[in-house]
Amino acid sequence: MPLDYYDDDEKDSGSKASRKDFDCPECNANNPLDDALKDGQELHCNYCGCEFLVKVGDNGRFKFREI
């Protein structure tokens, strides 16, 4: 069963909806994105190759599920 990871990146000073990067839950590498993160988006870590599905919780935090 895939594991869920929460993005606890404290350096983000703006709205979570405008995040244009993510830290890989597996290798902690920062991955810049062309567009803002959104619910249901599939991500690929450019460093370790892991793939994740993005979910936005009721509290607005991003959750990454490895796929």
Which terms would index this structure?
67 residues; mainly beta; Rubrerythrin, domain 2; four-stranded antiparallel β-sheet; 6 strands; 0% helix; globular; RPABC4/Spt4
Question: Can you offer a commentary on this structure?
Answer:
InterPro entries: RPABC4/Spt4 (IPR029040). It is a single chain. The chain is 0% helix and 34% strand. The protein has a single domain, classed as Rubrerythrin, domain 2. It has 67 residues and is mainly β. The strands form 2 sheets. It has a 4-stranded antiparallel beta sheet with strand order 1-6-5-4, with no helix packed on it. It has no helices and 6 strands.
**Order of strands across the main sheet:** 1-6-5-4
Q: How many strands appear in the DSSP assignment?
A: 6
Oligomeric state of shown chains: single chain
> From the alpha-carbon coordinates, what is the Rg to the nearest angstrom?
11 Å
InterPro entries: RPABC4/Spt4 (IPR029040)
Biased composition (Acidic residues): 1-11
Biased composition (Basic and acidic residues): 12-21
Region (Disordered): 1-21
